[in-house]
Amino acid sequence: MHTRLLPSVVRPIGASLKLTENCQAKCVTCDYWKTRWEDGLSTERAVETINRLSDFGIRYLRFTGGEPLLRRDLFEILRRADTSRFKRISLQTNGLLLKKLHKEINESPINKVSVSIDGLEATNDAIRGTKEYFRLAFEGLQLLQGKSIQVAATLNRRSSEELQSLVDLVTGYGYEFAYNLLDNHLYFFRNGDVESLWPKEDDIERIGQVLEHKLKRPAYEIKYVKEYFRRSVAAEPPCAIGFLEVYVASNGDVMSGCYVLAPVGNLLKQDLGEIILSKAYKDRCVSMTRRECPGCTCGVLTSLRIQNVGQGVRVLTKGILSRRRAAGESLRSAGPTQ
Ligand SMILES: C[S@@+](CC[C@H](N)C(=O)[O-])C[C@H]1O[C@@H](n2cnc3c(N)ncnc32)[C@H](O)[C@@H]1O
Ligand code: SF4
Ligand code: SF4
Q1: Whose CA is nearest to atom 2 of ligand 3?
Q2: Distance 294 CA to ligand 3 centre (A)
Q3: What is the per-residue pLDDT across 177-230, written as a single tens digit (0 to 9) for each?
Q4: Per-residue 3-state assignment (H helix, E strand, C coil) for the chain
């Protein structure tokens, strides 16, 4: 992507916030649960951070982690922060605490809940390293009221034969189904077991069928997913995520929508706006569009969409208003990011 086409100022519209990176599940693909993490953002700091994100123009806020529902003060933070300007506040969760906390979630300004489920019951519980995971997650989901609900699956070999049934089950409940791609480039996936779950040729074909016929995904996306699993992607899309999203880790690190490259600043030492409006931040976002990075699947479906859909170019080139509208559309419809 030619840099002349990029916006002159970086004004992300979405934020992913990790108030904790601790987790009680034991997913084989993920490293989070292997470490005891320090939560660097106090209740007060978390409230200030959310307010600052809102002041800065963020309209799509996502709590992820680790497991965000392990932060005992999450609902107090949401009560104390000014959440009125967010169009969407979503919760990316393993679902283990949904049953216990459904009343708090129902009363909170969270309006979207995305639960990670990687297969039917036995397969999911094995991949997630947690007995009763599937049952707890689905029972919890049914207690939610007035929320948009998504089930997010990381595509894999073990559940490729069940994928169609999982999609039927999820859509039968009226929930949205989304997916993401196995990765081991992010700091929290580096030692996960990705190889034993990597789809083989017949799994790839089955996955492709579900993406095409059940999920009606566009041809360019299906092609990318198949090539990705065959390890034969010819050209990665320019990574647009830096212009669309900012990530904040549990120690206050601020990242340009990328968990692989080094953080650009830290909230505990600098103002968020100062970090995002800095030259270093902009240079980073531009270099991301040139793919000066080791690569990862985080946000790749959004970048592909921007590359392939006519509006994509407008997302990154037109004035703030049309850009933000189109970017919001991209953030709403993209699969989950990590
Ligand atoms: C790290 S989790 C954090 C939020 C929450 N604990 C959960 O599991 O939904 C975010 C997403 O990453 C997915 N994930 C886990 N391991 C992965 C891997 N190795 N590659 C790609 N996505 C992965 C999870 O299934 C989940 O949808
Ligand atoms: S994927 Fe989510 S639930 Fe599983 S160990 Fe990682 S953070 Fe926990
Ligand atoms: S594709 Fe590259 S620049 Fe984009 S988020 Fe992944 S590692 Fe970062």
Answers
A1: 295
A2: 7
A3: 999 999 999 999 999 999 999 999 999 999 999 999 999 999 999 999 999 999
A4: CCHHHCCCCCCCCEEEEECCCCCCCCCCCCCHHHCCCCCCCCHHHHHHHHHHHHHCCCCEEEEECCCHHHCCCHHHHHHHCCCCCCCEEEEEECCCCHHHHHHHHHHCCCCEEEEECCCCHHHHHHHCCCCCHHHHHHHHHCCCCCCEEEEEEECCCCCHHHHHHHHHHHHHCCCEEEEECCCCCCCCCCCCCCHHHCCCHHHHHHHHHHHHHHCCCCHHHHHHHHHHHCCCCCCCCCCCHHHHEEEECCCCEEECCCCCCCCCEECCCCCHHHHHCCHHHHHHHHHHHCCCCCCCCCCHHHHHHHHHCHHHHHHHHCCHHHHHHHHHHHHHHCCCCC
